[in-house]
Write a structure and sequence with these properties.
Blueprint (H helix, E strand, L loop, with lengths): L18 H8 L4 H5 L2 H9 L2 E6 L5 E7 L6 E7 L7 H13 L2 E5 L10 H10 L2 H17 L3 E10 L1 H12 L4 E5 L7 H4 L6 E6 L7 H13 L4 E6 L16 H18 L2
Parallel strand pairs: 3-4, 3-5, 5-6, 6-7, 7-8
Antiparallel strand pairs: 1-2, 2-4
Length: 269
């Protein structure tokens, strides 16, 4: 855990024009409607603020921050897919802010973003777990220390980021954890540090995060006495909530998002 009293913090903000107006305009739209429209995605991404802090090892790490109309509020740290912190993930942060949460989309790739699977695989493979852990725990500490945050923090991630949402909550226990089809092969002993409830969305046809892995994850959580909501979308495949991918399932994505917002309202609002 990072001690904010002893860690040097340098925060830089780059303000986009009419940020609050953009977030207000997005409030009446579904997440699917935003993500399916490149213009809205670009608008939502541009509405965020770039925030930079220093880690104890001296690295500068950056994220994209969206604030709700009313603060203090519960905060959500969002971890990107293997593509990196792209406009789509920033749009998720904007949507969460329009829903009433402080939302911070973190960057585990130091500004690099992939547009093809080969590059994405390379970026993911080059990630150093100890640095990624320092990044996510640093941002969690930062969120807990923000005056705009009510004192409760959740993590949320998709695919690669789903696994890191769970990793972050294990390294620095938070008030709630949301996992979209992320790696979850930890044992009951490894899952004991989890503090808050867990929400998981998994695809029945997923060949990477398999139903067997999910069953083991759910059983391990039960062994530890953890509170968890695990949802399986039987006819969906990996990344079913990503409207830019070939596995997108509109109704499953909508249902998963509705469940996510309801879970966050229940746990950190």
């Amino acid at each position: 855990m990072i001690d904010l009293k002893t860690t040097s913090r340098r925060i830089s903000l780059r303000h986009a024009p009419a940020r609050r107006d953009v977030l207000t305009g997005l409030a009446g739209l579904s997440l699917a409607a935003i993500l399916a429209d490149p213009v809205r995605v670009a608008q939502a991404a541009a509405s965020l603020t770039t925030v930079t802090i220093k880690t104890p090892s001296g690295r500068s790490i950056s994220g994209a921050l969206a604030l709700p109309a009313t603060t203090p509020a519960g905060a959500v740290m969002i971890v990107h897919e293997w593509w990196g912190l792209n406009d789509q993930i920033k749009s998720v942060a904007a949507e969460l802010a329009s829903t009433g949460f402080v939302a911070l989309a973190v960057d585990l790739y130091a500004g690099k973003v992939a547009s093809d699977p080969t590059t994405a695989q390379s970026l993911m493979g080059a990630l150093k777990p100890e640095q990624a852990t320092e990044t996510v725990t640093g941002w969690i500490d930062h969120l807990y220390g923000m005056k705009e945050v009510s004192g409760k923090v959740a993590t949320l991630g998709f695919c690669f980021g789903g696994g890191w949402s769970l990793n972050a909550s294990l390294a620095h226990p938070v008030d709630a954890t949301v996992i979209y089809y992320g790696l979850c092969n930890q044992s009951a002993d490894q899952l004991k540090p989890l503090k808050g409830p867990v929400l998981g969305h998994f695809a029945g046809l997923d060949q990477w995060i398999t139903p067997q892995m999910v069953n083991g994850f759910e059983a391990a959580l039960k062994t530890d006495g953890k509170t968890a909501e695990i949802y399986r979308y039987a006819d969906a495949n990996h990344a079913f909530a990503n409207p830019t991918g070939q596995n997108y399932e509109k109704e499953d994505a909508r249902l998963a998002w509705d469940r996510t917002v309801a879970f966050l309202r229940k746990t950190i609002a």
